[in-house]
Amino acid sequence: MRSISIRDSADRILDEVIVRVTSGHGGNGAMSFRREKYVEKGGPDGGEGGRGGDVIFVSTGRYSSLQFFAKKRTFRAQAGEPGAGRNKHGSDGLDITILVPLGTVLTDIVSEEVLADLVDEGETVTVAHGGSGGRGNASFATSVDRAPRYCEQGIPAEERRIRLRLKVLGDVGIVGFPNAGKSTLLSKLSAAHPKIADYPFTTLSPNLGVAFSPNSERITFADIPGLVEGAAEGRGLGNKFLAHIERSRVLLFLVDGSSSDPDPVQAYHLLCRELEQYSEQLAGKPRLIVVNKIDLISAQKRTGIRTRFVHQGIEPLMISALENRGIDAVIERGLALVQSAPVPPREQVTRIYKLKLSDETFEISRLPDGMLSASGRYLDRIIHTTDFEKPFQVTLLDQRMRKIGVEKALRKKGARDGQSVMIGGHVFTLGEETTTKR
């Protein structure tokens, strides 16, 4: 498949964006007749138009951000080329392939339909299909009409507005209040190099790091921006990124052992409350409790913190990320929990199913302004493929609509001569002998 690729070009996070995509218009069919020396009355040889390109989203692990879409939010596939004489088929339009990070959920803005949840490498979804090419006059030749003087226009492109929402993929999601030491822990766990400094909200975007056990078993950690009280209701930065840990199989609660307001045990329960308010499913994930910065407190205080947790049925890990103490235990315990935890479900893809109607089925409805409207699969197609500048095509359209009973159905609903009606998305004037486009 030929394609044009759109690649990410930034390193900062953008986790939700709305884009507009348009597939390619189908190429028009050609009306042509064979003209060669010594060939008398050459027959029709108009070729078909090419098919328009599709809009395709593809997931890739090479990118972790939707930042590319901050500058470009409109994408259009290539239109099909028109047909030509000598039965030449127009070239098909190029598809446009848009690369997105793993964990991207695509939702149609209008219908609220979840189109895809792209989790695995190389998954694809076509969100807008290119229009098919119109037929040339050679396709309409019959024993009765050997020289048809009409052809079809290509089917119009599809246009959609799609919401892209990124949910970071990590085996273990690290949650904690600002300054708990999440970025430092991640840097020690893996080869990641997140920005680290001694002030709140250092992490303004999720960071991913990969760690390996002594047996070379792989585990991915996701450092989520610090929560604040009320994050579940949208306060602070927390609510914006809570969705990212929905993908995690295990949650690592990181608390600051040197903090007194709140103290480590209080901080843990505050974090639990925020997660419960945001999502019961999220709060029910397997968890690992880690007390950080033990290098800043006395042995007596470390024992007191541990004892309080144990009395609540919790066995915490006591570490110092800065001094690289207890890091192996975090990897070992985290890996064991991940291996026994269920795989998080994907976003449920919804489909809006419609009854497949026969070609000649159409519906009559009344628009808000009172105008009658006729629409159907076949009816819309013959309207879209008609060139109203060519009398032969208009006559053919009129014959087709009369054959399936469009005018009769409109009159039955109360339409009168000279009245405007909507047919296949175009306004027509109803007449006694013919239905003409206004």
TrEMBL record:
GO terms for biological process: ribosome biogenesis. Pfam families: DUF1967, GTP1_OBG, MMR_HSR1. Mg(2+) binds at residues 183, 203. One of its GO terms (molecular function) is magnesium ion binding. GTP binds at residues 176-183, 201-205, 223-226, 292-295, 320-322. Its EC number is 3.6.5.-. An essential GTPase which binds GTP, GDP and possibly (p)ppGpp with moderate affinity, with high nucleotide exchange rates and a fairly low GTP hydrolysis rate. Plays a role in control of the cell cycle, stress response, ribosome biogenesis and in those bacteria that undergo differentiation, in morphogenesis control. Monomer. This is GTPase Obg. It comes from Candidatus Cryosericum hinesii. The gene is obgE.
